[in-house]
Amino acid sequence: MFSPSRRLVLRRWVLRTMLALLVWGAAPGLPRAAQPTPLAGCAPAQPGQVGLLSLYALAYDNRPTSAWDLTPHYATTLQSIVAATVGHPQKLAVVLADLHGSADTHIRLVQNGLITSIIGLPNSSGTLDPTLREYDMADGLTLGRFLRWARQTFPATCANLTYVGHGAPLVPETDLTAVFGPNPAQRAQAGPLPPLPTTIGANPDFTDQHTPVGSPRPYSVLTPYALAQALALGSNGGTLPFEVVDLAMCFAASIEEFYEIAPYTRFITGSPNYAFFDPAGPGQVLAAINPLPLMTAQVMAETTVATYDALLPVSDHPRILVAVDSSRLADVKLAWDNTAAALHVLLTSPTERTATKQLLVAAYMASLKYDLTYCAPSDWDLANPDGLVDLRHFALQLSEQFAGTGVAAWADQTANALMNTTASPMAVIKRYARNDLPWFDPTPNMWVFNGPLPNPAIDDDAAGLSIYADFVGMPITTTTQLSWHAHWYHDDNTVLDNPQPYRFLADGPPGVGWDEVFQEFWDGESTQTATCIPQLPTTRDTAGALVDLTVRPLLRPLSALALEGPIELAAAVGATASAPNVLLRFQVRQNNTLVFSSTVNTGALITGTQRIVASAIWQPTVAGPFKVEIMVDADDRIAELVETNNGALFDSTVGPSLPRPPIIRGLVAERRQLWPTRAISLTLSQDQASLPAVSRLLVQTYQFKPGADPRVQVPLLRGIQSIAAPSLANLTVTLPPTTQPGAVLLYIWAQSSAGWSVNPLILRLNYAPPKAGLANGASHIYRLVATRGEMLQFTTRLETAQDVDLFVWEPYVIGPPTQQSTTFGDDTITLPAAPLTGEYVLLVRGASPSGALYTLSGRRAGEPLRQAQAVAQGGPAFPIRRPLFLDPDAEGPTSSLYLPVLLK
């Protein structure tokens, strides 16, 4: 599930705390062992009724500078869901998205191509709270109250859930506070199990980075138990099960995790290994599901994995995707419990123990593997000593090694309960497997599952459900190193750090389970657990479409700077095609010593040039020469047409004393964004550390016009103004006469006796003159910044018999506008409370055949109105998508371009 231009590997590392389970109308909650009987299948949707409620939990709260940050893919994910609902009002999508900011969790409804933003999040009582702005997407009760609220608020004949995020295998439900952070604590060994790792750690690339205020966890991850908590809440304890739960994250398809959530959903889809994610995948799955008549849950599950497989490239992305019938997993567990019991009898027999251990190891060695080798020497091969095996393939190997015994009989029954060729009931109803070389391994070996058949035909095929079977480990001197998962792999809930063991490990009718086999195997051996965090190597994506990335400094070679003088580094990054999550690295060296470094995730680059600023300010502490090095595609993952133009550098010197080039700060008067006149009032100031005083300002005025792609707005220099002896505290800048209604950028450079400023001050505003002329079909585009909860209102006043239409896009919406007003004559669009902090785009389009004169006014308020939601207006059909803006590739005043201006 990866986009063609860039593949993202989804994983999430691990920690959670135990919380009480609540279900609809029941305070104490559903016992974990309960197995409610699901209701009958979906009823056909009637005209005007919601037939399919598709819920999406997008856990995109990652480290913004990470190459694996999912937030830059949110707009594409959302647009794919929007497109899937056009013309299908029976489909309602409810999207819960948590992005990489600290207060940006939000809900959006999507129906018939329109987006409605919900203000607030459901609280613990199940009501919308407009003050809630951040969720912990890995918290079971938090996620569950969203699911419960959505299903109660929008009743439908069927409900599905897709969870997209980074995943890790066998995540324990335990409090890792004492073993987490800079000063981890040791813990005693639990029974015969290996000792607890001294530190586990959560990779910031793969965690929920921002948890709500007051949360005991600085960041957290999803566990099988937490997911079961959420699904129990969202399904009324399993009496209203989901039709399909789609886990679009790595390592989700384990028997331990699928069995945990089986009571709350009819079918489950996922991958037992690395999952590749294409942001268009969720929408394409929704588009492939037919609302009237509604598909059965089984067909929806089969369609899900088939769509993902068809979307992914056939090469460089080896994968295995499965759809599982939840009702059949009880048969799998019963057969496996009997297999475990037969093995346990042999392991505890003094005469059989040694031979049994050898046969177990042989079965493990011959089984198909899923990756669990994180510790050095790490590898990306699916081979020994990976501790995850395919359950069906492992059962078949046990049958072969223990031929003629009770172990073999029960192992065969396990394999057939999972998957068989006789068409008798089985758990795995569909499986897509592709053998190939992984794109991110610099020295890859073939990943074999087998494949590519969608249904198994031979015994060498993996079923697609993993199980933990770490029977070899990695030898370290006289000790065997096991994966850290070993510590929690038991069913004893009396151990303090294992309060919620996996349900699959509960003892079966024979009185033992698979965990007893694992513990008995290692009893008496010298073992330890590893303390590793999985990391993808920085290798190249050769499967995507080639792009050429270039970079150059936006700064002129710096004049003499003084110690402690703040320096903002910036670069112009050019791209010949779209490229998400490109890393840009700034480094400063003095005397060959690295003194400053800042790496920025550029987000979703579009074709053209964009101005990227370092995430921190450099303040030199040592005088003398220095070198600034800028590198785009800093981790060398993007395959490019030209690889030699990714770097740029320049040299300068830090002086021991003043003067320093001027640094100015400022804003538009009253932070006003709509200006009816060309005279713009500014309030500027000079940083006192950059004296002497400013003697001249140079103001560059930029606007935008459509480029070769009409959606992409390219910068256009409208004019340059030189202002001598400016009064910074009360300055008026006059826009050039050629300025058109719409968005305006002011690049302001300052000069003093120490030279010109290193970077310009950039101010944004919109020119909105009264009675602006607009031809039929032409557009004026305005860019406005709003904070979450702020009220926005836009109104156009027109002359008699004239008409324009208004369209507004909220942040991250790239498809049809979220609001529009197309009535004849005056129009108004109101956002009672902005759903997200960010840029809102307003487009005014001419609708009068002879042209129109309109006056645009806007109103803002700091306090949000207590409205439940902002309702979209108009129909879904719209011919354009959200405009995208390229940054001006501005040159400093030392360029010859500005010499005529300075000489006047």
Cα gyration radius (Å): 30 Å
Q: So how many helices?
A: 12
- Share of helix, binned: 10-25%
Q: Could you list the spans in which at least 5 consecutive residues all have pLDDT below 50?
A: 1-41, 176-191, 196-202, 861-877, 895-904
Estimate the global geometry from the Cα principal axes.
Answer: globular
**Percentage of residues in DSSP E strands:** 25-35%
Largest sheet: 10 strands, mixed
Whole-number average pLDDT?
A: 82
Structural class label: alpha+beta
Number of strands: 48
Query: How far apart are the termini?
Result: 59 Å
**What is the topology, as strand order, of the major beta sheet?**
15-12-10-9-8-2-3-4-5-47
Relevant terms:
alpha+beta; seven-stranded mixed β-sheet; 12 helices; disordered N terminus; 904 residues; ten-stranded mixed β-sheet; disordered C terminus; globular
